[in-house]
Each structure stands twice: as C-alpha cells, then as structure tokens.
C-alpha cells in the first residue's frame, strides 16, 4: 500500500496569495517595539507562532496556465527565491514598517546593499558624489568600481555642505554618505545634503548602520534611499550576513528589482529568518548597548592617555548640536585615540579580557577594531590621514556585558598603554 502524500496547495502561491491577504499582520499605528515583534508576519495554515522558514529554491504551480500567469504578472506570487521568497518578504515588510519606507529588498550582505543602491541609481555617463569618510569597501565602489562602468565620482568632506554644492554637475545622479561615519563618528547633515540632491535631480543614499533605524530616520530627513548591513545590529549576535535597501515603491520595482533578478544579490531564506528574529529584540539590545556606550565614553573622556574621545551622545562631539537634532540617541559606537600611536593602540587592545578584537560591530559581544590596519587599511595612509584615522585610533562597538565589567576592562587596558 502506498503511503499517502500530503499536498498543501497553500505552499504553491495560488493559495499562498490568499494566505498573504488574510493573515499578514501589520498596523501603521503600531509603535516601533510592537512593529519589530509582529510586523510583516505571514502564517501558514498550520498557525505557527514563530514565522516559518521557507527554505526553498523554487515554487510549483497547479498547471501550466498558472505558471504562465505567474510569469507574466497576471497572478502575483513567488516564482524563484532569487527573485523573492516568503521568509525574505516577511523580513522586508517588517523592516520597511519600522523605517517608514514604501518598499525594501533584502540582500546577501551589507556591501551587496550598498552596491545595489548605487548601481541601480546610475548608468554610464552619470556622476556620483560621496562623502570621503566611508568604510573601505564603500570607497572602493565609488572610487574604483563605478568608474569601470563609465560613472564618474567625486569625494567631498561630508561635513562641509559647500563642498557638496560645489561638486554637483549636470549629470550628477546620486549622492552617498554614512552618518555617523566609520570609524571617526562624524555626523553629516542629512537634511542639508538631501536638499542639494533634490535640487540636482539626484537620489541621496544614506548608510544608517551606526545610528540604527531606532535612533535615526534618514527618509524622514529627506533621503531617498536607506541601506543597512543587517549583519550588524539587526542580527546583532554574530550569526549571519545580510543587508537591505529601502526606498519608494516605484524605484524599488522599476530599478532595484530588475538588478536583483538578473544579478543575484538576494538574501537567503535562512538568513532572513535569523535576521527577523534579531529584529524582535533590536530595541532592547540597542537601548542597553547605547546606555553602556555613554557610560564608557564618559569614563574615558579626559583620561590622560586618551588623546581623543568621540561619541555622538556627548556635548563635546564636534557636531553635537546636529547630532541632537537628527539622532534620538548616541547609539552603540565610540572612537578613542590613545597616546603613543599604533604600538600603544595594540597594547591597549591586547590587554583587554572581555572586549574582543574583531572587525565586526553591532554585536552582543563588545568588539574593538584598529581601523588603520584592518577595515581602512586598503584606502592608504594619505586617505586615512585626511580622514583623521590615525595609528592610535580605535573603534569600540559596545555589547551587552555588564557595564561595570566593561569599565574595569577598559581601565585595565588603559593602564597598559
């Protein structure tokens, strides 16, 4: 006797569409904490509590006519996980609700998101303006990759609004910045740069990783596109890579989606599920990390061996007034420069017991980075000097450990300098 096969039409999106229409949760009036837990949820006929992981490459159709209708757009639904996937869609819907965006596309990594946002904004003959203070791989895209495809780029001091204005050309199509910057935590006036972009008929792309969607809302400040490395705070526990691009529905549909479909940077269903779980605790984790970061910054400020301390939540930050105006808190990152250059910086990091040496950030574990020899090594000594990335500067990503333990750890390390 043959074993009966359970066949559920709900998973071939003919009924999957019905499931989406009737059981997808979302409410524009929800506060961020509720959205992070419930936004974008789709439930299968089994009524699972935790969102389902649709770990599938493709989807089946009841008949050839249904397949044709799906491919020509008459029947909306999933076709192939390189294009879209139910689990990835849930992640995208949740974060777009948090960000206040019309649409979002998940990507395989944060750099895939940056590359997607910029490449979908330009064509050969166009021009891009970017702030000089960028992560090394972001500078590579602007300085090296885009010019290979006939797109010119100009780098400016992001804090100098006049340089942005002066760099605009008739063919300028995109402006790109991160704020706060990596690793020196400069704060760039997003609204002012957005006005310049709008006047030029260009799109402003903002990398919002350091501020997190909880503490800064670039779209509300006038930006057109927001990108995240979801690897950082959104996962926040060192498990997987991911990125996301958020913007208006028309641009995502007309420009971003074809790029995703034909070049393959889409997020995997497994990573989307992990990142969705990360979103559920984002507000709790980041609030605790931010509180501890402020305590560490206050503790280190004015110490004899600390040449420079930069934290956007302090009044002595170079752009403190702007930080208060466009950020809701100082977030989880701080930068400190120790006296004695590279040797002293290495002594400091090697003396730490709890804080681990890593090039990652936004993790549950506190992590420290020496940018000049790691994340910003590739941009060269001259570019580092221009950006204030000295051999003595360190980037500290504050985690979830006991604040007092971390204070004791940095104090011990400082004594080793």
Q: Give the oligomeric state.
A: single chain
CATH class call of the largest domain:
Alpha Beta
Summed up, the helix count is 16
Q: Averaged pLDDT, please?
A: 93
Catalytic activity: O-succinyl-L-homoserine + hydrogen sulfide = L-homocysteine + succinate
Pfam family, one: Cys_Met_Meta_PP
GO cellular component, one term: cytoplasm
Keywords: Amino-acid biosynthesis, Methionine biosynthesis, Pyridoxal phosphate, Transferase
Write up this protein.
With 417 residues, the protein is an alpha/beta fold. It folds into two domains: 81-278, Type I PLP-dependent aspartate aminotransferase-like (Major domain) (Aspartate Aminotransferase, domain 2, 3-Layer(aba) Sandwich), CATH 3.40.640; 281-416, Aspartate Aminotransferase, domain 1 (Alpha-Beta Complex), CATH 3.90.1150. Helix content is 42%, strand content 14%. The protein is built from 16 helices and twelve strands. The strands form two sheets. Strands 1-7-6-5-4-2-3 form a seven-stranded mixed β-sheet, with helices on both faces. Helix 12 (269-300) crosses helix 16 (403-415) and helix 14 packs across helix 16 (403-415). It starts with 12 loop residues before the first helix and ends with a helix.
């Amino acid at each position: 006797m043959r074993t009966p096969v359970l066949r559920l039409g709900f998973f071939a999106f003919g009924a999957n569409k019905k499931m989406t229409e009737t059981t997808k949760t979302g409410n524009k009036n929800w506060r961020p904490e509720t959205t992070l837990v419930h936004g974008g949820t789709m439930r299968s006929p089994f009524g699972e509590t935790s969102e389902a992981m649709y770990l599938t490459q493709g989807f089946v159709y009841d008949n050839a006519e249904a397949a044709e209708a799906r491919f020509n757009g008459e029947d909306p639904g999933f076709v192939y996980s390189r294009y879209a996937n139910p689990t990835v869609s849930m992640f995208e819907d949740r974060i777009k609700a948090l960000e206040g965006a019309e649409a979002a596309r998940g990507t395989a990594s944060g750099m895939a998101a940056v590359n997607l946002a910029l490449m979908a904004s330009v064509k050969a003959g166009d021009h891009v303006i970017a702030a000089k203070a960028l992560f090394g791989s972001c500078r590579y895209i602007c300085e090296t990759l885009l010019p290979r495809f006939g797109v010119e780029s100009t780098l400016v001091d992001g804090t100098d609004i006049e340089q942005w204005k002066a760099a605009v050309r008739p063919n300028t199509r995109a402006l790109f910045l991160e704020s706060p910057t990596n690793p020196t935590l400069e704060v760039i006036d997003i609204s002012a740069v957005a006005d310049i972009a709008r006047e030029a008929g260009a799109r402003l792309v903002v990398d919002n990783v350091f501020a997190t969607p909880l503490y800064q809302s670039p779209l509300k400040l006038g930006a057109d596109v927001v990108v995240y490395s979801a690897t950082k705070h959104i996962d926040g526990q060192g498990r997987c890579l991911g990125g996301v691009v958020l913007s208006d529905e028309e641009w995502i549909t007309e420009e971003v989606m074809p790029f995703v479909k034909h070049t393959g940077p889409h997020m995997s269903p497994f990573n989307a599920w992990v990142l969705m779980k990360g979103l559920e605790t984002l507000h709790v984790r980041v609030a605790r990390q931010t509180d501890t970061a402020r305590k560490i910054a206050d503790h280190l400020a004015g110490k004899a061996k600390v040449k420079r301390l930069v934290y956007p939540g302090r009044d002595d930050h170079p752009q403190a007034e702007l930080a208060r105006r466009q950020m809701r808190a100082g977030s989880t990152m701080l930068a400190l420069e120790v006296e004695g250059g590279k040797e002293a910086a290495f002594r400091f990091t090697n003396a730490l017991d709890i804080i681990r040496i890593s090039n990652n950030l936004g993790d549950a574990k506190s992590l420290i980075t020496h940018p000049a020899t790691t994340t910003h090594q590739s941009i060269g000594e001259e570019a580092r000097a221009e950006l204030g990335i000295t051999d003595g500067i360190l980037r500290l990503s504050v985690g979830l450990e006991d604040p007092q333990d971390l204070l004791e750890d940095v104090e011990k390390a400082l004594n080793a300098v």
